[in-house]
Each structure stands twice: as structure tokens, then as C-alpha cells.
Amino acid sequence: MLASLYVKNMALIREAEVEFGPGLNIMTGETGAGKSIVIGSVNIALGTGNFKDYVPEDADYALVELTFTTENPHVLEMLKEQDLPCEDGAIVLTRKYKSGRSTSKINGETVPLSFVRQLSAELIDIHGQHEHQSLLYAKNHLTILDSFAKNETAPLLSTCAKQYHCYQKAKREWEQASASGKDRTKELDFLQYEIQEIQSAALRPGEDEELESSYRLMANGQKIMEALSEAGNLTGAGSYGSGAEDEIARAARSLAAVRGYDTSLEELGSTLEDIESLIGEFNRSLSEYMDNLVFDPQALHETEERLDLINRLKTKYGNTVEEILAACREKEERVEVLMDYEGYLEKLRHTLEISHRQLLSTARELSAVRKRYAKTLAEQIRNALVDLNFLDVRFEIVFEELPEPGEDGLDAICFQISMNPGLPMRPLQAVASGGELSRIMLAIKAVMADKDNIETLIFDEIDTGISGRTAQKVSEKMAVIAASHQVLCITHLAQIAAMADRHYIIEKKPADSKTVTNIGLLNEEESVEELARILGGAKITDAVIENAREMKELAAKVKKPSFRR
Questions:
Q1: pLDDT (tens digit, 9 = 90+) per residue, 39-97?
Q2: What is the C-alpha to C-alpha distance for residues 47 and 63, in angstroms, rounded to an integer?
Q3: How far is the C-alpha of 528 from the C-alpha of 400, rounded, in Å?
Q4: Could you write out the three-class secondary structure of 407-457?
Q5: Which candidate among 89, 126, 315, 439 keeps its CA 20 to 30 Å from the CA of 57?
Q6: Count of Cβ atoms closer than 10 Å to residue 416 Cβ
Q7: Secondary-structure percent of the chain, ordered helix, strand, coil, rounded to 5
Q8: Whole-angstrom distance, CA of residue 132 vs CA of residue 462
Q9: pLDDT 10s digits, 480-535
Q10: What is the reported pTM?
């Protein structure tokens, strides 16, 4: 569950920390008090929001931090795979903004934003103010059904997607081969010419590097010889006359004459002898190298021509000799194909048929699973709708088979509803108002809450377009969900707020000539006063207070022990 939220420098919130508890956490406040900042901050921490919409102009630093506790094995495995520490199931998501840049961390370790989104999708589900509008699009209905049946649909969907991509690849290859077969003779002639060009060069792997090294040596032979000759003159190599070797030998003889007078001279003499030995060895190696250094103009010319040939082939077939030889093998394989093109086409057609047959089989299996679960889902949604004051509602999931399977199968589905006796079933998007869609989405969330491992749900103003008895029903449904999940809810309705296990007030207050937003946890009496404010508006009478108190008492009775943790 979400244990706490810490916010710094977000819109009107300078700094705030809120600790949440299990069950139903309700947040209320005047319009404009900053309730949207709370949800916005959570979205930013989860990687789905943007700091620039909230950071004040006079601040170059902002921070949002969410602390979760979880026992979800899938979440713990995701952290383990990323080598992220996690003690006692504690997860701290931190998103920091500074000087125009943002960073994300999990338990103190910097992570990509993409991973934050993946992880948060397993920790929390946010129902925003306008999410119910997603029900207007039939493509989202299939996603809901697949989520409901995910234990069986998930592996089939994965297989279907892989088979679909294999089928598409086979289809492209067959179509391209069919189209290019008309120019087979021309292509075959050109390939044979290219193969002959490469084979006649008789290339060896690594040959280009060897030739380039030899060419550098031969092309700079004169310069090398001049440098060696000068070095030999200075060190006394060969017959170049007096040099460093002779001078050091004389120095060694001079020192040898006096070495017996002081032990310190022994060390100096030994050092000079070592130098004499080293320079003598150097001069011998230098003379040997110069004797073997031969400048051959013909060899230089042949090397230059060979390099030119290899470089021409590189411009056409690859950047290295190895790549050129690999290109030659590919062309030889293509020639084999072209020599028996009908057989090649038949092989591709056979592969295409098999891939299509496999895809169709999986898609039909997936469709059968969906139809089996669709009956259960439709019935559970209908029951949840009755709980939400849709008294004579009928709800169905209608299937339509697509002409060809896609990566998510053969099915297009549509949620259909009738909300009054005698009215025909019609697509959801054609008959439901905004308030009705909001309740339908809540019903779906209630049904889905029992099917997944997500521990925390957030409802941002789920009360859109409802009041009276319907609002009471919505509050009771929220209490039911909160019996098995942590629920955070922002609301304007007293009926929903009265159900709170923990009630928070979000309010604006003056501070240092500025207006700031504060978030506070209310005690029982303060919660009653806040309910009275929601009920009574500007003037709160004793009667309103008593009404609020009675609402809390009735809510406590509704929240039966069987509903609670």
C-alpha cells in the first residue's frame, strides 16, 4: 500500500508530508484548495506527470516522494531483476526536479523513467476525473475483458502477438519474392558478376591490415633510413666514427682508475658499465635493422595496387575483408535461390500458410477463453451496477469476429447496456451520460479489484454527476473495495467522505504574504465539522452538525466487520 507522500515546491504546496493508512483514505477541501496538486504530484512520482506544470516560477527545485510497502511477489521480483535493494517490502519512489532536469530513483538508486512506470503499474491504479470517458471507445472494452481473464488470456495474447509478427514477416517475404521474381534473370547475371569480382581478388581475412602496415613502412623507407643513420652517427653504431658509445667507454675507463679509493665510486662505475652495455646492445640492434631494411620500389607498387583493389571492393561490399567475404557468401546463397526460384517461392508460401494457420488457431482459442469469461464479467458488472443504484439494468458483452486475426486476436467487442425496462440493448457510448459512465467505471473497478494484485487504488472525484441515493450507493461500494484494498479518494460528496477510515483536509492558508496549500489528518470531531461544511456551505448550523454526525454513525454501521481488514 501507499504509506506516505512527501511533496516539496509543487504549485501552492511548499512542503507537505502525508501518511496514509489501510482502508478508505478520503481527501476533501474547497474548490481550488489544491486537491489536484496531490494527484498531480503522485502522477509525477509515478512517471506519468510533468514537473513543469506544477513547479513555481520562483523555484528551481522540486521533489515528490512516495513510500510503498508491499508483499506482491511480482513487484519484488521486478526489483530483484534490476538489482535494486528492498528491505521488508519497502519501496521509495523519488522524482526530483532541479534546474530544468528531472531524475528518478527507487530506494536511492537512479533508474530509467520507463522502469518507474512499469513498477508503478503493479503498485497503484489511478482512476482520474475523466478516465470514465475511456469507456466511450470500444477498443478499451477488450482491454478490460483481457485484464479480467488475464490468468488465461495473458499467455495466449503473448503467443498470438509473436505469431502475428511471424505471419506478417512471412507475408512480406512472400509478396516481395513474388514481385521480384520477374527480374530474376537480370538479378542472377548481376550477382554472378559480383561474386566473380570478389572471388577473383582471392582475399584473405586480415590481409588489408597487413598490407596497410607494410605500405606505411615501404612508403616511409627513405625517411626511416635517414633517421636511423643520424641516430647511428650520434651513438657510434657500426662504422660511423666516434659517438656516444666511444665517449661512454672512455668515461668508464677514467672512472675505473679511481674506483678503488671510495666505495661510493663502485656504484657509479657499475652504473656507467650498465649504460655502456645498453648502448652497445642498442647499436648492434640498430645496425642489424638497417642491414635488413631494403627499399624495393616494385614491392611498394604492388602493395599499392593491391590496396587499391581491396579499397574498391570495400566501397561496394563492406568495410573490412571479412565483410566483403560475408557479402560474397550471401550472394552465393541468393544465386542458389534464384536457380530454383519456384521451389523457393513454394517454400515461402508453405511457411506463410503454416504461420497463418498457427495464428488463427491461437486467436480462436483466445476468443473461446474470452467468451467464457465475458459471461462472468458481464454478470459481475451488472451486479455491481445494481449496487450503484442501476436498479433495472441489463449488461452484455457483444462479440464481433474480425476478417483477419491481429496481434490481439480475432475479436472486436462492445459493452452494451439497457438501463430501463423495455429499452433495447445499445452500445454503452450511445446511451450513458457522464455521471452514469462514472458509476459504470466504478463498477468495473470494483469487479477488477478482486482480480488483480494491485494493492492501492486512487479515485479522483469519482462523484462526478451524482447525488442523493446514488451517492450513498457509491460510498457503500467504495467501502466494499476498501475492505480488500487501500483506497485514496478525493471527493466533494459528504456521503462518500462519511465512509472514511482516515479523513484528510486540503486547504489554502496565508503564509509570509503568500497563499500555500496544507494537508492535514482530521480527528473524529474535525471530520464531522468538515462533513458539515460540505453539507451546509457558507452557514453551518447545529442541525447541519447533527446531520453530519449522524452520517458518520450510519457509515460506521454500513462498514460491517466483514468488509474491513
A1: 889 999 998 888 888 888 878 889 999 999 998 888 999 999 999 989 888 999 999 99
A2: 13
A3: 52
A4: CCEEEEEEEEEECCCCCCCEEHHHHCCHHHHHHHHHHHHHHHHCCCCCCEE
A5: 126
A6: 20
A7: 60, 20, 20
A8: 9
A9: 888 888 999 998 889 999 999 999 999 888 877 677 888 999 999 999 999 999 88
A10: 0.65
